[in-house]
Each structure stands twice: as C-alpha cells, then as structure tokens.
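This section describes the prediction task in plain terms. A model, or a person checking by hand, is given the sequence of a single protein chain and must write out its three-dimensional structure as a string of tokens. No templates, partner chains or ligands are provided. The sample shown here is typical of the held-out split.
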Amino acid sequence: MSLLLKMCAIESYPGKEDELKEFVENELSSMHVFYDDDGLNNLFGERGKNPRVLLNAHLDSFGSEQMNKNWMMEVVYDEKTGRIKGNGTRPVGADDRCGIAIILALLRFTDFSFKFLFTTSCEDEHRGVRFFIRSIARRLHFLQDGDELIKV
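The expected answer:
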C-alpha cells in the first residue's frame, strides 16, 4: 500500500518521467531484478525461463501538468476502512501507478515467469511503447509470435 502512495506522490508527465523511472529502478535493483533501458527511458526485463507473458504499465500521467497540481496526491489511504480512496473526480487506478505496483509486487512476492515493460509517454500518443516495439522488441526477440501482452 505504501508503495502505491509513494508513487502517487511523484509527478510524472509525458516526457518527464525521470523521477518515477528512478523510483522503479531503485525497486527493481533492491530485488536484484535485471532490467534494461531502451534509450527513450522505457524499462524492460524478464524473469524466468522463456516467459511468454508480457506485463506492461506506463510511467506517465495525464492532466496534472495542465491543471497545475498533482491530482494523484488526492489518492489517500483510509485508515478506518483499510482502503485506498480518491476524491471522487478521478479513478483510483492512479493513472497506472496501480499497474506499476502490481508488476513490482509480482516480482517481489511470486516466482511467476513473465516479461515486464514500463513505458514512457503513453499519454503522448503512446510514443514510448511504439518506440520500444519498433526499435527494441523484435531486434532483441523480446516479443515473439504467440506472446501474450497484458496491460496492467
């Protein structure tokens, strides 16, 4: 829970994901999970032998820069109910911070085999994932025919 709240406190706009990317890199490093960076700040890696599932979450958020505030700070932990809640104006998915937290939790607490991809500039016409697919994925055989892509 605190992992999600920590990530929600980090502003991360399309093209300006450095702080959240560094946070995710620190989490991966603390778990001794090997990962790579594709040059557009997308992070990718895999765990297990020949995993066929790819989990993807994006590092950027939409809207907060234009509104001149970090709307994700409105995501809070309700100690009475033990639940995360928002202010009612946005979904509590925290604009994919939940997806990032799920992937990190799967890496930390399970032995599941899977590939993972944290992309940048999703809110900017999906530039990060498009760059990764065109420039990296096929060349490194990171994606193969029959792989299952799951957007978390």
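For orientation: The chain has a mean pLDDT of 77.
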